[in-house]
């Protein structure tokens, strides 16, 4: 709904490539970026754990850094809540497993100990014993007998009926959605006391009167329990359920409020504190309104019981928090492009009648994550669009952001091998390493801010949705890509101080685009599949069209070495002219609503895949393994103390996943 989860690599790709409000990035075009930073922390089972950096941290003032720090501490203080929400025995199980892990003195070189470590890693990653994505209870590979010896040797006591759950059939699924079952009764998730049925829960919430115009999110912040035979909500609040953790959160939120950047932020934080003190859902709405309309400042946050996916009947919000800072680099670029949007329009290769006389840049928002907790960690969304309450969205608006450094980390992790595999020569690899990531970001900015904004429809012609039908998306995405590509090789970018070496940026961008469009993006398809997704299609039809049109002049040469195919760009200036030509044609198709031409372009160049090349690409890619699911450790923000006050911060990257998980349990283990 409003939360874009990176559930799997394939789904991540799908989300990134779907345009409009969802996060979109051309960083996927250069999936094979390389940076010095080591993104990979560890892998186990079907999981890969990565690290991320916090770009822009140094540009924050000390006061802003304090705000970020306090907000991350507030977020982490609620970590135990998600564990308990996910399953009523999760905290007891985690405590037992961690005790065994840290105190067991026996042989740790056995296969069974390795299996125990893997299981603990999986539990940490899922915030409980059910898989974060499939929702199935994860089965330990080690035996029940082995576990009993571990508990005995480490002198650890876990209640019998609790540890037995690891091995028996009880509570097998966190969220049951099977229509033939009683989904509340059979789901293991801890939003409803055991024994409560779907009908009972629904009847309970239906009986609560709500304001039809401005309904609160009923049931959002409570556990439904039975007291003396009567159903009632046990509310998450100070002095109530999860009160110990919530009090810690309030402490940090108050400190954050004291260093808020703007009066609106200060007000929003005040309301959030009152909400946690009272548990009042009306207060939550007041907060959501204040938060939605607080759009100034370099720091922002998400904090609360928010998404309802973990509740089979979608009332209960899972605890989550994300702390974000402005993407300063991207914002600067966007502003420069926006201010010069008319120059780009006037100097583009569009036909005069298709140019806009007055063009305004499109706004686009990326932020960088500084810390996550609860349901947003270790598995994280890549974009967020909140608040969820529909009437607030309609009346007061919403905020939609894509998480830039998270997306970049996904794109960069473990990809150096792919670059070397598919790049034609050393110079191409070198330029990609030096300029690829930045050129890619600039392409995204050009695509979004001036690309989508440019051009106009001829009088009397319908919207592209009406005239181009199912080809509308891929034509529009290709048009925006081409607008960016045309200008990526332009000295104007240097004049505007967007780059320091326009030719190298342009060269890296063109190499990357062609390499991806004709070869490396095929790794996302299974053999025999057509290209379906709009952005993948446009990358292929753009690349294949310029390759074919430039064949006579050898603009792009197809090279086959030892049975492996490469594309080597021979003439960058001519390639730029071809991008310009195709941009003009794509705009003509859009302006005139020429369905037949759109269909011919897409079907002839963007849909079918050369089966021999595809087989070869999949084969060459098979040595690079990517785990099915990925998530992150958080950078650790460490205050430097000057007496009682904070004089600065250092950012430390955790060396291992387990070190961060154990530290979190120790430092933020407020519930039991
Ligand atoms: Zn787009």
Give the topology:
Elements: E1 3-5, H1 9-17, E2 40-44, E3 47-50, H2 62-77, H3 79-86, H4 90-103, H5 111-126, H6 144-153, H7 160-163, H8 183-186, H9 198-206, E4 222-227, E5 230-235, H10 243-258, H11 263-278, H12 281-292, E6 299-305, E7 319-326, H13 328-339, H14 341-346, E8 366-374, E9 381-386, H15 390-396, E10 399-403, H16 404-412, H17 416-422, H18 426-451, H19 464-468, H20 472-488, H21 492-495, H22 502-518, H23 534-549, E11 556-561, E12 564-569, H24 572-592, H25 595-607, H26 611-621, E13 629-632, E14 636-642, E15 645-652, H27 657-668
Parallel strand pairs: 3-13, 8-10
Antiparallel strand pairs: 1-9, 2-3, 4-5, 6-7, 7-8, 9-10, 11-12, 14-15
Helix pairs in contact: 2-10, 4-5, 10-11, 11-12, 13-18, 18-20, 18-22, 20-23, 20-24, 22-23, 23-24, 23-25
The structure holds zinc ion (ZN).
Pfam families: Peptidase_M49
GO molecular function, one term: hydrolase activity
Protein name: Dihydrofolate reductase
């Amino acid at each position: 709904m409003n939360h874009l989860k990176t559930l799997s690599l394939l789904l991540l790709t799908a989300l990134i490539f779907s345009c409009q409000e969802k996060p979109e990035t051309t960083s996927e075009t250069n999936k094979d970026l390389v940076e010095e930073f080591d993104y990979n922390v560890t892998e186990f089972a079907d999981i890969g754990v990565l690290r991320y950096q916090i770009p822009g941290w140094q540009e924050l003032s000390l006061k802003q850094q304090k705000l970020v720090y306090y907000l991350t501490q507030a977020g982490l203080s609620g970590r135990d809540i998600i564990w308990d929400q996910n399953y009523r025995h999760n905290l007891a199980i985690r405590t037992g497993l961690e005790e065994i892990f840290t105190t067991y003195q026996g042989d740790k070189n056995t296969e069974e100990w390795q299996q125990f470590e893997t299981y603990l890693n999986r539990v940490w990653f899922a915030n409980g014993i059910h898989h974060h994505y499939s929702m199935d209870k994860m089965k330990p590979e080690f035996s029940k007998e082995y576990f009993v010896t571990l508990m005995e040797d480490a002198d650890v006591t876990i209640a019998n009926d609790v540890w037995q759950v690891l091995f028996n059939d009880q509570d097998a699924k966190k969220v049951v959605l099977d229509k033939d079952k009683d989904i509340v009764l059979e789901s293991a998730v801890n939003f409803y006391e055991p024994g409560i049925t779907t009908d009972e829960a629904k009847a309970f919430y239906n009986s609560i009167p709500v304001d039809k115009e401005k309904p609160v999110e009923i049931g959002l912040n409570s556990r439904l329990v039975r007291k003396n035979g009567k159903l009632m909500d046990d509310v998450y609040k100070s002095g109530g359920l999860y009160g110990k953790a919530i009090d810690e959160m309030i402490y940090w939120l108050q400190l954050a409020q004291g260093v808020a950047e703007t009066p609106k932020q200060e007000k929003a934080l005040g309301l959030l504190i009152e909400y946690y003190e009272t548990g009042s859902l009306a207060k939550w709405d007041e907060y959501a309104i204040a938060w939605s309309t607080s759009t100034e400042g370099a720091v922002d946050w998400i904090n609360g019981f928010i998404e309802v996916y973990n509740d089979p009947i979608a009332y209960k919000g899972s605890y989550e928090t994300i702390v974000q800072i402005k993407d300063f680099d991207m914002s600067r670029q966007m502003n420069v492009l926006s201010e010069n949007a008319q120059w780009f329009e006037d100097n583009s290769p569009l036909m005069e009648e298709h140019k806009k006389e007055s063009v305004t840049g499109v706004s686009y928002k990326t932020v960088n994550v500084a810390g996550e907790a609860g349901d947003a960690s270790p598995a994280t969304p890549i974009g967020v669009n909140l608040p969820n309450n529909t009437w607030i969205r309609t009346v007061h608006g919403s905020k939609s952001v894509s998480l830039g450094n998270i997306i970049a980390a996904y794109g960069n992790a473990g990809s150096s091998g792919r670059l070397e595999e598919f790049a034609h020569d050393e110079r191409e690899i070198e330029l990609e390493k030096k300029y690829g990531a930045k050129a890619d970001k600039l392409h995204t900015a050009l695509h979004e801010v001036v690309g989508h904004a440019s051009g106009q429809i001829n009088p009397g012609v319908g919207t592209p949705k009406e005239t181009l039908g199912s080809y509308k998306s891929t034509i529009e995405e290709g048009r925006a890509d081409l607008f960016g590509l045309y200008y990526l090789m332009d000295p104007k970018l240097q004049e505007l101080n967007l780059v320091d070496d326009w030719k190298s940026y342009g060269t890296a961008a063109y190499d990357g685009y062609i390499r991806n469009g004709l070869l490396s993006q095929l790794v996302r398809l299974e053999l025999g599949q057509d290209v379906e997704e709009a952005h993948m299609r446009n990358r292929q039809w753009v690349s294949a069209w310029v390759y074919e049109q430039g064949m006579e002049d050898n603009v792009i040469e197809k090279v086959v070495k030892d049975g492996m195919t490469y594309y080597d760009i021979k003439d960058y200036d001519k390639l730029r002219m071809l991008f310009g030509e195709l941009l003009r044609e794509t705009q003509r198709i859009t302006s005139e609503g020429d369905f037949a031409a759109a269909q011919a372009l897409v079907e002839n160049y963007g849909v079918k895949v050369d089966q021999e090349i595809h087989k070869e690409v999949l084969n060459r890619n098979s040595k690079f393994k990517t785990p099915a699911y990925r998530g992150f450790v958080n950078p650790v923000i460490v205050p430097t103390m000057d007496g009682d006050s904070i004089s600065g911060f250092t950012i430390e990257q955790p060396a291992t996943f387990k070190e961060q998980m154990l530290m979190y349990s120790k430092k933020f283990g407020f519930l039991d």
